[in-house]
Structures are given as structure tokens and as C-alpha cells.
Design goal:
Length: 74
């Protein structure tokens, strides 16, 4: 399962490879098309959210879960 841990450093190359992309550029483009945010901005927003709302139910939701939700509501 692909998940971005917002509390740890993120290696975008490793993240892109884990998601099945051969390069960061294609991953970043599709990530932004899906979330509306670049991967870097997404992590910044998640980190701020975690600081402001510790223990929130949304804390730790993986990207795959969000994608499944979008597919089932479309």
C-alpha cells in the first residue's frame, strides 16, 4: 500500500518508484492532477494538519484510500 508518512522525510524518487512510475515528473503531474497539490505541498499541508489536529481520525490515511473514495463517489 502506498502511503506518505508526513512525519518522516520524503524521498520523491522512492515514492514515485513505489507508486509504479519510472520518474518523478510523471508521478508529480498525476499526483497534482489527483490531489490539486504537488507532492511537496501535500506533505507540508499534512504536517501542518497533524500539528493543529493531533490524533485526528484522518491522521495516517494512505493515498490509496483517498483514491478509492474518489473512484466510488464518481
Amino acid at each position: 500500500m502506498l502511503a506518505i508518512n508526513p512525519t518522516a522525510p520524503v524521498d520523491r524518487g522512492d515514492l514515485a518508484g513505489a507508486a509504479g512510475y519510472s520518474d518523478q515528473a510523471h508521478f508529480g503531474h498525476e499526483f497534482r492532477a489527483f490531489t490539486g497539490l504537488t507532492p511537496t505541498r501535500y506533505v507540508e499541508v499534512r504536517r501542518r494538519f497533524l500539528r493543529e489536529h493531533p490524533g485526528h481520525a484522518l491522521d495516517g490515511w494512505p493515498i490509496d484510500f483517498l483514491r478509492e473514495q474518489q473512484l466510488t463517489t464518481s
